[in-house]
Amino acid sequence: MRMQKKADGVFVSDEPFVAVNHRDIKTLINLAAKHPRLRVRLCAHDTPDDKVHEMIIAMLKGSYVRPHKHFNKIESFHVIEGMAEAVEFTEDGDVTSVVRIGMGGPALQFYYRNPSQSFHTWNIISDVFVVHEVTNGPFQAGSSMHAPWSPDERDAESVKKYMRELVEKVRRVKQRDGQMMLKKEGGL
């Protein structure tokens, strides 16, 4: 597939029909490795005004997706490669749920749909994480907001500190949820 750069970290196909193969995925991964944010996207939709937006997003471990929420949007993700945790938060930044998604086993979720308007982010677990995202359009500036308690992407030191704290919060929530499941199943 031939593609062109549309914006920083954003590419579009030069062809009328978008068809993606493994070589294209490797190209996106290589582009992500060279990008300061360690992620890039290939937009399959034609314009920001389209009613449906489809993207192939390649992210590398260490990529920081600032916690954010959308207004009047639904997102779904189908994993192509790798593993990550979808993390949701309260308005104050407490972790409410963690869903591990990825390729690699019959019990692992490979599809995730987020219909809520809660703050959320990704915690990338594998070296590479590639997803097919679908959301409703059109794109409108101001239709989402960053969590006020999360650091700006440009503040590298604060981001590193925040990501360490997030991993610990996620660990505690998974431990709590695992213990609650054992209690429900009569295991504790």
How would you characterize this protein structure?
The structure is a single chain. The protein has 188 residues and is α+β, with helices and mostly antiparallel strands. It has a single domain (3-184), classed as Jelly Rolls (Sandwich). Helices cover 22% and strands 37% of the residues. The chain contains two helices and twelve strands; from the N terminus they run ββαββββββββββα. It has helices spanning 22-34, 156-184, and strands at 3-7, 10-13, 39-43, 52-60, 68-70, 75-81, 83-89, 95-102, 111-114, 119-124, 128-136, 144-146. A seven-stranded mixed β-sheet has the order 1-2-3-4-11-6-9. α1 (22-34) links the parallel β2 and β3. The protein is globular and about 50 Å long. It starts with a strand and ends with a helix. Residues 180-188 have low confidence and may be disordered.
In short:
With 188 residues, this protein is an alpha+beta fold. It is 22% helix and 37% strand.
Please describe the biggest sheet, giving its number of strands, its sense, and whether it closes into a barrel: 7 strands, mixed
By CATH, the topology is Jelly Rolls
Instruction: Give start-end ranges of low-pLDDT stretches.
Output: 180-188
- Round the Cα radius of gyration to an integer and report it: 17 Å
Write out the strand line-up for the largest beta sheet, numbering strands in chain order.
1-2-3-4-11-6-9
- Written as H for each helix and E for each strand, in order along the chain, the element string is EEHEEEEEEEEEEH
Beta-strand percentage range:
35-45%
The N- to C-terminal Cα distance equals 54 Å
CATH architecture label name: Sandwich
